[in-house]
Amino acid sequence: MKERQEGGFRILRSLRRGRGGAALAGWLILSLVSIQVGQGFWGMPEARAQGTSQSDVRRLMVRVVPKDAKKDGTAALVFRGLLRRAADRLGASGLRRAPGVENRFDRELETVRNRVEAGYQALMGQRWTEALEAYRAAEAALQPALAIASRNLVARVYKGLGISLLQAQKQLQAKDAIKRSLVVYPGQQASEYAVTLEARNFFRQVQQEMEEAPEASVEVVAEKDAEVYLDGEFKGFAPIKIGGVKPGDHWLTVMADGFQPWSQFVAVRGVVEQQVQVTLKVAPEKGRQEEAMRGILRSLEKALPEAEARALAESSGATDLLMLRVSQERNGFAARGIFLSGTRVQPVQMDLARDGNLVAALQDLLVDLTGVAARSESTMVALEAPPVALPEAAQAGGGGSPTIQGGEDLIVDPNSP
To answer: Which residues pair with 220 in a beta bridge?
Structure first.
């Protein structure tokens, strides 16, 4: 049962007793891996047309600390993972992850969006050289902001780059670019590449090659308990081994409180386990963030630490902030903290059972606090597609009917983003 209290949020659940610390750790880890993320935090669609500016996007920072470092460390870590995944589900509805530093890379992301739009228009006009220049500029602008870019935007950059490189007769580079787009945004269809029949059929060849490739594994070694994302999906905390990885380039992002985000494409070769070592740089804002967190924790039982919460949100590049102190109690878990969104600041208080309702309870908490509901559909929206793709024979003024692989229609949805 869930009920509200004046000035805060409280969850009441039936409680069950555990069987010791080892059992608790195992149960919590199972809870962590059981969530189906779907689109991941970067799944929010990027509209092709001019729309909301980057400065208007809401960005959420989640901070979870143990009440007692020894006794509550495991519970706090997995609460952080559960909340991270629950927050990722809200990414498709407009709530992004804060970068953890003051710079939200608004200018860089806006540049990427503008260059992608210019490249798309050039592709539609079959101005191949112009399209290639635009997508290369988009890729260059993307690099410093890669850690917090949406999956949709990253995939559109490499999709357009792949098509443009193919038209420039650079097949190997085109294949690598399209593979990047596919690992970041799986489920793309050949019809979305039907700018020309060549591009459409080339996509199907790349897709089949990826499906038939053997799987490898990657071990990510970084700052202890840093959050690790692969191809836009949260995988867990460093150090971590990730299986089921296809050979090729994969988008790896590592984030940790007090450190600058790290993100780049890493090459996975062969079928043996590959180790990637990531060295994070301390963020200039780390001192201010730690001071603000100490102030919040000191004030939790006395008064609403509004000034400290705003300082922490500002230094983390966040519009929304959820900070919790978690403890393991006799019959479950307790979490006390604060939530900030715009001008609104409120205390958060939760008592939760050690049972299967924990995941749903934390998801409900984020939805209630942020006012953002997770999308019900688990499939990704389509990337941009040409309104109509003409057969090559018709484009060349020739007769006859072209051969189309897969039996798909060349006319695709003009309203896809």
So the answer is: 240, 276
In angstroms, rounded to a whole number, what is the distance separating the alpha carbons of residues 144 and 135? 16
Rounded to an integer, what distance in angstroms lies between the CA atom of residue 37 and that of residue 89? 6
344-353 and 233-237 strand pairing: unpaired
Which tokens hold the place of 97?
A: 């992850």
Say if CB 70 and CB 82 are below 8 A apart: no
State the alpha helices, DSSP H only, in 194-335.
197-212, 286-299, 306-315
- Helices marked H in 101-228: 106-124, 128-142, 151-167, 171-184, 197-212
Strands 58-66 and 95-97: parallel
Q: Where are the beta strands (DSSP E) in 187-272?
A: 216-221, 227-230, 233-237, 240-245, 248-255, 262-268
Q: How far is CA 91 from the centre of its chain?
A: 7
Per-residue pLDDT reduced to its tens digit, 351-372: 998 887 888 899 999 999 999 9
Evaluate whether 68 touches 327 at the Cβ level (below 8 Å): yes
Residue 302 to residues 110, 305, 377, Cα–Cα distance (Å): 42, 9, 42
Instruction: Encode pLDDT of 247-277 as tens digits.
Output: 999 999 999 999 999 999 999 987 778 899 9
Listing DSSP states for 394-408 in one string gives: HHTT--S----GGG-
Q: 169: phi > 0 → left, psi -120 to 50 → alpha, else beta; which?
A: left
In whole numbers, what is the pLDDT of the chain averaged over residues?
82
